[in-house]
Amino acid sequence: MSDTGLPSGWEIRMSKSRGIPYYFCGSSQESCWEPPAGTDSDKLKAHMAANYSESIAPNAPQAQKIRAAHLLVKHAESRRPSSWREQEITRSKEEALQILGNHEQRIRSGDVSLADLAKSESDCSSARKGGDLGWFGRGDMQKEFEDAAFALKVGEMSSIVETASGYHLIERLG
């Protein structure tokens, strides 16, 4: 095990499209956003804090990149109808829309934040980070998502946005 806390053969790389770190195994060519099995989480946390906390911020002006979080609810017609929560998502588009509509009401009423709800209810792997997708620019996300995110003011949340991935609520963070 290295000083990063990752298992042998694994390393940390930076995503060119998202500007955030990910994990890569040279021997298997496997990559993932989540730390691989066998990671010493305390060592990894210390390593990330010491080496990556500043590099996650964008190097481009704010007008070119924004930061957003989202809560995604997939359905059977989503481009990849599976998630960390469910191996096979079978709900209809209507059911997904109703679920996200209920989440939207809870967030807008102040009952819960998008970040807190995303941790347990989002079908995206960003759920572990409260839905935070990091910094991204034009062309990095699906067009419908990008258009909605760039139209928001910092701190503002979108209405429900449909993409090929499913239904989203988007909150602009930066």
UniProtKB/TrEMBL annotation:
GO terms for cellular component: cytosol; nucleus. Pfam families: Rotamase (PF00639). GO terms for molecular function: kinase activity; peptidyl-prolyl cis-trans isomerase activity. Residues 63-174 form the PpiC domain. The keyword Isomerase applies. It catalyses: [protein]-peptidylproline (omega=180) = [protein]-peptidylproline (omega=0). Its EC number is 5.2.1.8. Gene3D superfamilies: 2.20.70.10, 3.10.50.40. Coiled coil: none annotated. Residues 4-38 form the WW domain. One of its GO terms (biological process) is positive regulation of transcription initiation by RNA polymerase II. It is an enzyme of class 5 (isomerase). Keywords: Isomerase, Kinase, Rotamase, Transferase. SUPFAM superfamilies: FKBP-like (SSF54534), WW domain (SSF51045). PANTHER family: PEPTIDYL-PROLYL CIS-TRANS ISOMERASE, PEPTIDYL-PROLYL CIS-TRANS ISOMERASE-RELATED. This is Peptidyl-prolyl cis-trans isomerase. It comes from Orbilia brochopaga. The lineage of its organism: Eukaryota, Fungi, Dikarya, Ascomycota, Pezizomycotina.
